[in-house]
Amino acid sequence: MRLETQILSHLIHNENYSRKVLPFLKDEYFNDFTEKTLYRYIKKHVEEYNTLPTVEILGITLDNDDVDENDFEPCIKYLSQLTDREIDEQWLTDRTEEFCQERAIHNAIMKSIHIMDGKEKETKGAIPEILSEALSISFDNHIGHDWLEDFSDRYDFYHKIENRIAFDLDYLNSITKGGLPQKTLTCILAGTGVGKSLAMCHFAAANLMDNRKVLYITMEMAEERIAERIDANLLDVPLKELEELPKAAYMKKVDRVRDKTEGRLIIKEYPTATAGVGHFRHLLNELRLKRNFVPDIVYVDYLISVLLCD
C-alpha cells in the first residue's frame, strides 16, 4: 500500500494521528488527482464539523457535490482502499513528516525554476525565502505549557543561565541582568533629538569590539552618516575632526580596530517609510548567501529604535 493511501486511511480512522498531521499537510503534496481530491474533502469536513468523516460520509458528500463523473468513479473506488488497518502510529507520523518535507522541497524547487523561467510573478529575490520555508517544515508536538505537569521544566527554566549580549555600560547591564538575552526584541523610546541613534551607534560599536556580528538598518540617516558616528566611537576622534583627519592616519586607526576584533558590522540604509519585514527578511537571506553573514544582533533605527538579538 502506498504511503499516501496510508495517510488518507488514518486521516479518517485515527483521530490522534489526524489531529497531529492535518495542520501540516497540504493538497499540493499529493500528486495523484484522486488523492488530492479526497484529502480536500477530508480536511473540509474536519474544519466544518470538528470530527473525522467516514468512508460513507465522503461518498455521500462527493455525490451531493456533483463531482464530474470522470473524477467521481475513481474517488469512490479509492475510498474502498481506506480501511482501518492497524499500524504503528509513531512510525506513520514520522513517515508523514518526511513525506511533507520531501514534497515541500520538491515543490519549492519547481517553483524556483518557474521563477527563473519567468513563469511566476515573484522576483528571483524570493527564491531563498521559498527554499528556506520548505526546508523548515517540521511537525511541532508542543501544544502549550501544562502548569501542573510541567513544573520541573519550569523550575529548570528559572535557573537556566541565558546567553546574553552585554552592554559596555555597567548601569544597563545591571537593569537588564547582564545584557540582552538572545531571541528577544528590545525597543529604545525617547523624544526626537534626544539621542536614540547616537546610543545605538555606541552600542553597535561596542558589540563589534566584543567580536559580534552586527547588522545596523537605518531608515532615517544615510549609511555613511551612521558609519561616521561609529567611526567617532571606535577611532576616538570627534565628529568635527574626522573630515580633517589625513587618510593615512584614518586607515591606520581602522587597521588598529580590525586587529582587535573578529566581529563584523554591516550598515544598510532604506528610504524612510519604504521598508518592512519582507525587506529585512530578504536582506538577511542575501547577507547569509552572498557574504556568509548571520548577525548576532540587529539594530533597526527609525521612529522607535529596535534591537533584535538572534
Total individual domains = 2
Briefly note the structural class of the backbone: alpha/beta
Series of H and E elements:
HHHHHHHHEHEEHEHHHEHEE
Portion in helices: 40-55%
CATH topology of the largest domain, anyone?
Answer: Rossmann fold
Biggest sheet descriptor? 5 strands, mixed
Quote the average pLDDT: 90
For this structure, what is the CATH class of the largest domain?
Alpha Beta
Number of helices: 14
- Rg (CA only): 28 Å
- The CATH architecture assignment of the largest domain turns out to be 3-Layer(aba) Sandwich
Structural summary, described in words:
- The strands form two sheets. A five-stranded mixed sheet has the order 3-7-6-4-5, covered by helices on one side. A two-stranded antiparallel ribbon has the order 1-2.
- By secondary structure, it is of the alpha/beta class.
- 54% of the residues lie in helices and 10% in strands.
- The model has no long low-confidence stretch (mean pLDDT 90).
- β6 and β7 form a beta hairpin.
- The chain has two domains: 133 residues, DNAb Helicase, Chain A (Orthogonal Bundle); 146 residues, 3-Layer(aba) Sandwich (Rossmann fold), CATH 3.40.50.300.
Keywords:
DNAb Helicase, Chain A; five-stranded mixed beta sheet; two-stranded antiparallel ribbon; 310 residues; alpha/beta; Rossmann fold; 14 helices
